[in-house]
Task: structure prediction
Amino acid sequence: MTTTATAPLLQVEDLRVAFGAKTVVEGVSFSIAPGEKLALVGESGSGKTVTALALLQLLHDARVQGRALLDDGREPRDLLALPERQMRALRGDQIAMIFQEPMTALNPLMTVGEQIAEVLRLKRAMTTAQSAQEAIELLAKTGIPEPARRAGAYPHQLSGGQRQRAMIAMALACAPKLLLADEPTTALDVSLRGQILDLLEELRREAGMAVLLITHDLQLVRRFADRVAVMQQGRLVEQGATAQLFNAPQHPYTQKLMASRPERLLDEHAAAVPGHAPALAAQGLRVSYPVPLPGIRGWFRKGAFVALHGADFAIARGRTLGVIGESGSGKSTLAQAALGLLPPPQVGGQVAVAGQPWQGRPAADRPLRRVVQVVFQDPFSSLSPRLTVEEIVGEGLLVHAPEVAAPERAARVRAALAEVGLTEQQFPHLLARYPHEFSGGQRQRIALARALIVEPQLLVLDEPTSALDVTIQKQVLALLQKFQRERGLSYLLITHDVDVVRAMAHEVIVLKDGAVVEAGPAGQVLTAAQHPYTQKLLAAA
Result:
């Protein structure tokens, strides 16, 4: 424990938050000591993020009651009662927040370096040159490679993990006394997750910074937090020291959370069907991207960055290949090649779906588009907000089976949704609803129904559970395993979550810098890894 006997840095008393007639946080009380790490856990919709936003007065349409006393070395001040001018001075200085979704928190019209430097100029009165250099150093501290170059990049030019690290750098710019971290490592691989935790721990030791960690990652909580507070439906149901709460949870809801580790429910003996080509196979798969050359050479020709080289693998019918590796290792590139989304000049070697190679021409590739479908990482951005559930799920039938009449198509949409656990009984007028009316887990079920309605042989699963809390994650994985057993589906599973790989994969390949450094049966790779890089990944999980 790192708590001290001094007065709390933050004392929250009877916090209540309501939107109109609906109360979403009710009677929440907790304290954080200087330098303490408190984790706030619970399912999506439990009120965790709303609690943090209320403390910063960032809920403009809400009715907020209670007290939140911040001891900044002078007279304790009630954060909930301060005028906006004083709160503006506190935000980023005394209290900073790392938001869950960096693409919505970062300004798309400014480089990440400029955004960090702006905070330093406003809060620490640095010159333009000083703030620019400090921004680069902060990016380097968070583990971003080539920080000077990345400082000049716009948010859309960075990977999800790099954007998250840029957000963290911005939050830490003024060395705040209290950091509110809302899912700060969701988009990061296991190694980078460890780096960020080490960084936060270092800052806590150096500056006495306290951390309120909001997360659904229980492994992260176990490793990082001093104490844990559990929220359910807007109420705190249990608080205690981390070790005590994990070893002997008292409340039934806490017990349910602790039991939500993914289960392995696979057909372990599923094997290649004689006469059937692999669902996906690659030989010598190589992917390169054109890059500008420096100086006058760049006027006449481009160089090439090899993102994937020499990959060999095959996925038999009814089996799952798990692909793990750090950000930038080539996982997303491999997925794009598998989906036939890269232009032929960039792809070398052979990649075939159900024995048929991609042609690189829309008309020629259309039949394969029905054979392979994809479930994306983020259920919030992968579904069009302008389309109804019927239009989203039925879109594949319009493309691949236009002969199906509208009434039959609607019936198939209902059947697909029922298979993933969404029915008219639960959601009246289900087909006419829009994505924003559903939770993250429900949206991922809709995305799964969209993929399954065309009866594919192969699903590419790109971090399918990273945005979901632990209980919903377990449900989605169980659903995927059920469909694999019943339909003989094959999965290409891209993930940085080792627990998900343990639950889902028959075989595993490990990517590093675009090369396969280890491959084999999941049990062998995950329990007796031979390559130092694989051992490092597993140790960090």
